[in-house]
Design goal:
By secondary structure, the protein is mainly alpha-helical. The chain folds into 2 domains: 1-38; 45-244, MFS general substrate transporter like domains (Growth Hormone, Chain: A, Up-down Bundle). Helices cover 75% and strands 0% of the residues. The protein has 9 helices and no strands. The chain has helices at 6-29, 53-82, 88-94, 97-117, 122-147, 151-166, 169-180, 184-213, 215-232. It starts with 5 loop residues before the first helix and ends in a 14-residue tail after the last helix. The model is unreliable at 241-246 (pLDDT under 50).
Length: 246
C-alpha cells in the first residue's frame, strides 16, 4: 500500500483466494477422495437438539467469539496507529501477528481437544476445557494488553488474545456436529450466523465505545464478554440428547 497504493495491494491480496478456489474446485472435480476424503455419515440428529440448552449456549458463546475476534480484524491496525503510535509500515507488520499466531493456535486447539475427548476426559471436558481456556485466556490477555504502557508488550499480549480465542474454533465446530448429528448443516448455518452477528456488532460498537469510554475500557468490555463465553461452556455437553430442551 505504501509503495504502490491500495488498488494494487487489494488486487495482490485477491490472488491467493482465487488460487485456492481453483485448486479446491479442481480436486473435487477429479473426485480425489484420497486427497479430500468424504466425511463419514453423521449420527442421527433431532431437530429438537437445535433448541436445546447445549446448542443455544454454544451459539451464544460463538457469538461472543465473533465479537472479540472481529475487533482484531477491523480495528487492530488503527489501534496500533492511533493509540500505540506505531508508524504505518510497522503497524502493518505488527497487525499480522494475530494471524501468524493463529496459524498455530487454531489447529493446535483442535488436536488437543480431540486427544482429550478420546481419553479419560470424554467429550464434555475434552471439548469444554480447550474452549473455556481459549476464551478465558483471551480475556486475560486483552486486560494485560490494555493495561500495559509498553507498546510492544501490548502488541504481544493482544496477539495472544486473538490466537487464544481462535483456538476455540475446532472444539466449537466439533461440538456442534456432536450435538446436531444429521442436522449439522442447519446447525452450522445457525452457529456461523451467530458469530457473524457478533462480528457485525463489533466493528460498529467498538469505535463508539472507544470514543466515549476510551480504548482501554472498550478492550476491558471485550475481555469480560470473552470470560462470559468461557463460563457458558460449563453448561454445554456435546453428544447429549435433546433432554435438556429449553
Amino acid at each position: 500500500m505504501i509503495h504502490w497504493g491500495w488498488r494494487y495491494a487489494l488486487l495482490l491480496s485477491a490472488i491467493p483466494a482465487l488460487a485456492t478456489g481453483f485448486i479446491w474446485t479442481g480436486l473435487r472435480a477429479k473426485g480425489s477422495d484420497h486427497i479430500l476424503p468424504r466425511p463419514s455419515s453423521p449420527a442421527p440428529g433431532d431437530i429438537r437438539n437445535l433448541w436445546s440448552r447445549n446448542f443455544v449456549l454454544l451459539t451464544l458463546s460463538y457469538t461472543i467469539e465473533g465479537y472479540v475476534s472481529y475487533i482484531f480484524i477491523f480495528w487492530f491496525y488503527l489501534y496500533l496507529v492511533d493509540v500505540r503510535h506505531f508508524n504505518l509500515a510497522d503497524s502493518g507488520t505488527l497487525s499480522s501477528l494475530p494471524g501468524i499466531f493463529s496459524i498455530v493456535s487454531i489447529p493446535l486447539g483442535g488436536v488437543i481437544s480431540d486427544r482429550l475427548s478420546n481419553g479419560k476426559m470424554g467429550l464434555r471436558w475434552g471439548r469444554g476445557l480447550i474452549a473455556m481456556s481459549g476464551l478465558f485466556f483471551s480475556g486475560l490477555f486483552l486486560i494485560l494488553g490494555a493495561r500495559t504502557d509498553n507498546a510492544k508488550a501490548a502488541v504481544f499480549y493482544l496477539a495472544l488474545a486473538s490466537a487464544s480465542i481462535l483456538a476455540v474454533e475446532g472444539p466449537t465446530w466439533a461440538s456442534m456436529i456432536q450435538i446436531a448429528g444429521a442436522r449439522s448443516g442447519m446447525a452450522g448455518g445457525i452457529l456461523n450466523c451467530g458469530s457473524n452477528i457478533g462480528g457485525a456488532i463489533s466493528p460498529l460498537l467498538t469505535p463508539i465505545l472507544a470514543a466515549r469510554i476510551g480504548w482501554k475500557n472498550a478492550l476491558y468490555l471485550a475481555a469480560v464478554l470473552s470470560m462470559t463465553g468461557a463460563a457458558m461452556w460449563l453448561g454445554i455437553v456435546p453428544g447429549s440428547s435433546a433432554k435438556s430442551d429449553l
